[in-house]
Design goal:
Elements lengths: L4 E5 L4 H11 L3 E6 L10 E4 L2 H8 L3 H6 L6 E5 L5 E6 H5 L6 E4 H10 L6 E4 L3 E7 L2 E6 L4 E4 L1 E4 L6 H7 L5 E12 L8 E7 L2 E7 L6 E8 L10 H12 L6 H10 L3 E8 L6 E2 L2 E3 L2 H4 L8 H15 L14 H28 L4 H14 L5 H16 L5
Parallel strand pairs: 1-2, 1-11, 2-7, 4-13, 11-18
Antiparallel strand pairs: 3-6, 4-5, 8-9, 9-10, 12-15, 12-16, 13-14, 14-15, 17-18
Helix pairs in contact: 1-10, 2-10, 7-8, 10-11, 11-13
The structure holds flavin-adenine dinucleotide.
Flavin-adenine dinucleotide binds next to helix 1, strand 2, helix 9 and helix 10.
């Protein structure tokens, strides 16, 4: 494989993780990232099951564990901010073995630091067009350069431009909600604690590692699919004002802080479903190929595992069953990943239904559940039953 050139689009989680494995197989790897630096946004994300084994094989498990959020408690609050119920995080999180929870930013930074010495990172640019020939893909970048690569991997997230350029417009499966994450001053004074607040068709949550560090806030609201410009941050913030203003707790304070911050993430709760993850020499991974939606809590794990599997197969000679235009390794990557991805997608759809409450009755039911859970004589079994599909999905692949 030595000297084969690979272009990866996107320096989130999947892109740098794929770069890590390809460099070890002798590929010459370039990563192009549209943002001008690694994006320091996002909430905490889970790394579970097979994905923790990938971190171990990357030699990064200990570093990831050192950055674990160490969450202690989840507190549900009422409109006036008073606690409704507080539960130990260990009870609700269903961790097994080396499962961990890490800020998305820390995970992305870990992947970048493990690869930056061996990989060429180009920030502030993106693929403008691609032209495939029998011996490679000629890529023209938005800043004007044209370079030929042997393979192109799209790790550019839910709205992947690589996907659009190689496969055309693919409709997303909207799961009925929008989610936003941003940073606020930690006026809650919380430390390794998450606060959750439910309103009809709304969910607000906040987390901080330490009282002297800023907190991250998440606002999620139920909505049919809306037509909006993804680059128009002011319009997205206006949607959140419309959905949340005056809803109690610290919501108005959060909205005011949101207006002042640049660290802002907003997206639809959507899945990507594709009949194939590759076309010719172009392949997709992570959210670009199979976003399971944030509600699944499995996007980062799928990204890490997909990068590992693709990193083992990319560039393999095409076998007799592979399409003549495609690359043989892509078929093997997909064969191994599909069943695992499908389980996690199904789990994501289920969780998206449950994440945002319906009306007042649904909130009353939840509140009762939260208040009484800790007195339930078989609370561990109740939680175990709830978490079983997630644990099953997280481990549904042999590496
Ligand atoms: C800023 C941000 C915050 C997030 N916060 C959360 C969260 O709080 N909770 C959660 O569950 N999930 C979150 N996600 C999604 C989560 O990171 C992914 O589900 C998961 O980690 C899979 O990673 P990925 O590398 O496939 O995609 P992503 O992590 O989305 O990374 C994709 C990368 O591609 C870059 N990119 C996009 N378009 C182009 C382009 N045309 N050319 C080059 N680069 C491009 C993006 O800037 C990004 O760096 C967030 C994603 C982003 C980008």
């Amino acid at each position: 494989m030595t000297n084969s050139r690979v272009l990866i689009s996107g320096a989130g989680v999947a892109g740098p993780a794929l770069a890590y494995w390809l460099v070890r197989r002798g590929f010459d790897v370039t990563v192009v990232e549209r943002a001008h630096e690694l994006r320091p946004a996002g909430y905490k994300v889970d790394v579970r099951g097979a994905a923790t084994e990938v971190l171990r094989r990357m030699g990064l498990l200990e570093a990831a564990q050192a950055a674990d959020t160490g969450m202690r408690r989840i507190t549900y609050v009422k409109k006036n901010g008073r606690p409704l119920a507080a539960l130990p995080a260990d009870l609700l999180m269903g961790r097994r073995g080396d499962d961990l929870e890490i800020m998305r930013w820390d995970l992305s930074r870990l992947m970048y630091d493990a690869t930056s010495a061996d990989v060429e990172y180009v920030f502030g640019d993106a693929i403008a067009s691609m032209r495939e020939s029998s011996d490679g893909v000629e890529v023209t970048f938005e800043r004007g350069a044209t370079t030929k690569f042997d393979y192109v991997a799209g790790a550019d997230g839910l709205h992947s431009a690589t996907r659009k350029l190689s496969m055309g417009d693919v409709p997303l499966r909207h799961l009925g909600a929008y989610i936003s994450i941003f940073t606020v001053p930690n006026t809650l004074g919380i430390e390794r604690e998450e606060i959750m607040y439910f309103r009809p068709e709304r969910l607000a949550f906040a987390y901080a590692m330490d009282p002297s560090a800023p907190a991250r806030v998440g606002l999620t609201f139920a909505s049919p699919e809306r037509d909006f410009d993804r680059r128009d941050v002011a319009a997205q913030k206006a949607m959140l004002h419309e959905a949340f203003a005056g809803l109690g707790w610290k919501i108005d304070e959060f909205l005011a802080a949101m207006d002042r911050t640049d660290d802002f993430y907003f997206d639809s709760m959507s899945q990507v479903e594709l009949p194939s993850w590759s076309k010719g020499r172009v392949v997709l991974l992570g959210d670009a190929a199979h976003c399971p939606a944030p509600a699944s809590g499995q996007g980062s794990s799928l990204a890490l595992v997909g990068a590992y599997v693709l990193g083992q197969h990319l560039g393999e000679p095409a076998g007799p069953s592979s399409s003549s235009s495609g690359c043989g390794g892509y078929a093997e990557y997909e064969r191994r990943m599909r069943p695992y991805v499908e389980k996690n997608m199904a789990f994501g759809r289920k969780m998206a239904k449950d994440m945002v409450p319906g009306g007042r009755l649904s909130i009353a039911f939840r509140s009762y559940g939260m208040r009484t859970l800790k007195y339930h004589p078989r609370k561990e079994q109740v939680i175990e039953k709830f978490l079983a599909p997630m644990l099953d999905a997280a481990n549904a692949i042999r590496l």
